[in-house]
Amino acid sequence: MRARALPITIALSLGCTRSSGIEDRIAALLARMSLEEKVAEMHGQAQTGTFDGTYHTPDNTRLAIPGFHMTDGSMGVSQGTGHASAFPCGAARGATFDPDLEQRIGEAMSREARAKGANVLLAPVINVLRHPSWGRAQETYGEDPYELGVMGSAFIRGAQQNVIASAKHFAANSIEDRRFTVDVRMDERTLREVYLPHFRRAVEAGVGSVMSAYNKVNGFYCSENVHLLHDILKGEWGFSGFVESDWVLGTHSATASPRAGLDIEMPEAIYYGDELIQAAQQGTVPISAIDDAVLRILRMKARFGILDGLPPVDPSEIESTAHHALALEAAEKAIVLLKNDRVLPLDRARLGSVVVVGPLASLANLGDELGSPAVDPSHAVSPLEGIMAHAGALRIDLVANSTLSAADVATVQAAGAAIVIAGLTDKDEGENTLRGWGDRLNLGLSKSAIAMIQAVAAANARTVVVLEGGSAITVEEWIDQVPGLLMAWYPGMEGGNAIAEVLFGDVNPSGKLPVTFPRSLDQLPPFVANQDEVQYGYYHGYRYVDQSGTSPRFPFGFGLSYTSFAFDQLAVDSSASTVSARVTNTGTVAGDEIAQLYVGFPGSKVDRPVRVLVGFSRVHLMPGEAKTVSFSVDPSDLAYWDTASAAFKVEPIELAVTVGSSSRDLPLAGKLAPH
Ligand code: BGC
Hints:
The protein is an alpha/beta fold. The strands form 6 sheets. A 6-stranded mixed sheet has the order 2-3-4-5-7-10. It has a 6-stranded mixed sheet with strand order 11-16-15-14-12-13, sandwiched between helices. Residues 72, 122, 168, 246-247, 372 line the site of beta-D-glucopyranose (BGC).
């Protein structure tokens, strides 16, 4: 049997959101526009008058075409617009493995964006977390392309109830320090299978815009990359929306960019002003390229109601009670229980007192404060505040410093349990803006934080560490000394409450790692932050550790619970490409399990990962309850990129199907024959 090429038309039809009514309307508008008016659609414009904190493109008053008003939104609507709800960061939301929740977050964020006058939300970030050192790791959903696609599409579906979403940054943007210059090189197969599938899913979900990345891919800036923009995004995938550049240093020319398919230069016209008008007049940029860009922009303005004037959203929706509840739900579902030697949950009735330790205890840690994801909620709950609010009759002491005095040690010794809040902040990682850097080259905690954990653990046998941060943190120096460990990420404005609920058992932890936690940097591919050319290999994340046969500290998909789950009754239906399994709560408290489906490719004639994630399902179970989870396998997730024929192919081999609770705990095994 020969390998079969996959039809790309599925993607084409889904990504293509053209309706004849809209097409007629925008064609008629275009016919009335001068060249100057067309080019004016294609660039940002500094705002005059009262600054509303959004990025504008010009209004066309003659033809009554409103401009775009764009705002950032990976964790909440940008601080530039004033107060807004701060949701847990992207990595945290990746840890929820809950697309339904992500859709509701996208919708909530878009309501707040619209209440602030925006009609474009510059989110979601769906770059592959190739390495946890990336400064913007916190903004994306994790390392797995399948999960990125599913979560990103969910956000888009929610956000696009109200505004245009923008999937960013297209593509292979995963280094911060040299993001403006770095040339990310990789072979076509790696590009197609690892760095692009989630963007294709975003297009299939109908995303209205895509932001090109700052970096180069294989020698060409993403904003002038014909292969990425013209051939793949707009050609093969049939994307009918518009592409805007990343800000300021994201556009490099008035000719190569419009010819490649960059439709809008943001935030101002450096190239897409007079220079572009001249280039069009001289024919160095064909008028057809300008028309295509303007049609794409008008199409989205029509589809999203912008041409007709979007009705305002009431500002009372900003930071509403419902959005607080959503931020809390996300933070609760995002917390990952990484270690529990019978220390958690903390028993309020028996412990008498608890000491909370560390300089981060009183900080509502929202992650990046300088970069584009920074959000400014009116109030955010710190871990200490949350713990105090949930402590009941327990006495809560605070040791706020990391270097413990003799008196501090005595306080820690006397406490029924110690909770150490440690991890990363805005000072350790973030977007390369005012900082001039962003990547985190050392994955461990600071020396002072390590010493603090060790000192507390030596003084109190019931020590629980709560980590905050945007991606993997290495824990080798101290993990064996502490019986309890939670990963809380940057948990958003309700984070402190969620941390407290999990610590006291009011909420059963259910998050799973969307990124591999290695023992050390050598378990990962090299991360090069200081060169203008880097080579990306085919493997990263769990695929890399699986291939190299090492065992990470905490594998992708891992997370414990206060209850236990059993998996059985695997059923594979090859003709329908479906897999199902039964999950039973075998413990004594209610909880959520995230069942995960992986496939392997035994007998493949090409190099394939040991396993790849192709499905997941969050299921809530009462003690003793069992439910069947079902997965529908998308053939595009089984395919490999065949370089010789330049097409995706599904091999006629029996695939190894495994189901379980993490990438390294897969009790059920079966076979699936793709058809
Ligand atoms: C970031 C984008 C962001 C833009 C506007 C850029 O520096 O890379 O993610 O949307 O600024 O704030």
